[in-house]
């Protein structure tokens, strides 16, 4: 059996030493043995009393909404881990992934018990509990976990390093490090401050410790896969991040965007969002896959702090620009200005244009003004109104343009069906493809 740590970085693709190299798969497995705990031995008696007597009706409603995402998610990841085990190239990796599947099943049992014994949800069976919480799942959560389902099928058919890297990025980096870990910290923090739900709090601490181990494994595996395929793996990672992160602002989207579901427990949407973004960027960098080095279009709008990115993601999601659009997109001047400022910030720095180019959007909607973007030697500006001499004029409806930006409408399909009508220098349309490359 080959050793998981038999090659040095210089022998494996010429990639320098990374933070992920500080740990071995054998050590991760040993940590699992030392950290074992029982989901069936927790005593929820005091939790049930506190749930009835100490939580207000709205606090119970808000907590149930949040906990339901975890319950469903733990079951889903347990169901989808088998193809990861099959695709892992080393036995040490397979062994650890097997322990992870055991962990995820234990987490699902833990949440099922809490839901039934404390919240009186379900009849004690896993299926009844899951069906009871399903209506509480957010649209962003559904989109990302639907992608996890299809990714498992893809991995069964294709066990290449690039496909496995995409799967690990989705599972370990997006779902565990970006979404779950900040949510766990949020829950454990307020329960600890309020000294409530002792058994549930103990279980959440155990879940968080397990997830930290899983994330460490995912980061290490990504680093090793990149060494094996230094071209295909970054491309695969970039593609899956672009595909799913546009839904991340809608994962912790409370019912009706009523942020009291979060603030009632002493935190804010953006505090959780900033932690998730920081976790994702740190983990990718530790794997040698820093966001700024990935091929394809920029994942995040340039020049913004993590807090500003979280605030902007929420605003764009609420407006119906990114993520799942559940009605007409907002079209007030502030939203349109935010849209075009975001477009400006996501111009590819690798566009390679040898001279300035101006692109103009002329909306068919009579109530919306024209906007234009000028790209010039690494700097980009947007402005409302007509440009003096645009290289390319794009005529389409505002909603169609928003759906192209939100990747709900293929621009080539819009072009073929006449919904997008370009005018101007034919070469400028090709330049637009360089300014906004597709993943």
Tell me what the structure shows.
The chain has 439 residues and is α+β, with helices and mostly antiparallel strands. Helix content is 58%, strand content 6%. It is built from 17 helices and 5 strands. The protein has helices at 25-34, 45-53, 57-80, 82-87, 91-117, 126-133, 139-157, 161-194, 198-228, 232-244, 260-263, 269-286, 306-318, 333-345, 398-405, 411-416, 426-435, and strands spanning 357-363, 371-376, 379-384, 392-396, 421-424. It has a 5-stranded mixed β-sheet. Strand 1 and strand 2 form a beta hairpin. Helix 3 runs parallel beside helix 7 (139-157) and helix 8 (161-194) runs antiparallel to helix 12 (269-286). The chain is globular, with a radius of gyration of 24 Å. The two termini are 37 Å apart.
